[in-house]
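Usage

Read records sequentially. Each one opens with the input sequence:
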Amino acid sequence: MNVVAMPSVAVPSMKDRVPEAEWETRVQLAALYRIAAYMGLEDLTANHFAARVPDAPSHFLIKPTALLFSEVTASNLCCYDENRELVYETEHTSSPAGPRIHGSVLDARPDVMATIHLHTTAGAAVSAMDCGLKFISQSSMRFAGQVAYHRYEGLVHKDEEGPRLVNDLGDKHVMFLENHGTLITGRSIPECFLLHHYLERSCEIQVAAMSSGAVLKEPPMEECLKMAQGWAENRAPPANEMVGERDFQAMVRKVEAIDPGFRV
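and closes with the structure output:
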């Protein structure tokens, strides 16, 4: 992969204007955007990730609509309150769809600290399959019994879709927006990153396997559920504080070596 550092969109630093916990979350979320750019997950300027502000749980951070993932920094992230109003004045804003999707989930799920919504080729392909996610790989088995689906309603332009989306998500952390893409939630930014990684791998494997035309070996559901249960137990407290941290920090080091500008 040829990687070129992209110039960040400069704005005045927010470091001295926000609490330390918010700044740390801003840096971590900006890193997540840069990681996604490095991994080729951008859909031009579309798609968003969001993170709850620790000291103000009704507030959340999200990418400005006009920016590529590779242009996001800790300071140019938008901060919205529970009324979807900007907390800090900025020339950059997010389209209504971003705060509508992510804000609805964060409002309804106090256990969720971060959300990822993407339109990757593999994720969108599986979202369009009547069979949904098939548990045919070790990556996908960890999601057995843990996947939600939300039927396609067109572009997310209406507030009324938020409650329906949240209702379909329920208490799960992974959802396919049918004919659209994926939505992942996590109890931390690193956990959200890790869940998305394995979901994306699951979708890529499924698309490749089904495209081969070969008869698929599908393990018994009880075996898949056993695998999922083992994964869930590994994520239970107190281990949940560490879920995804090792892999996330490894990727942070990778993107920081290319361009540390996301930290400003």
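Summary fields computed downstream for this record:
- The CA atoms of residues 26 and 74 lie 5 Å apart.
- The chain has a mean pLDDT of 92.
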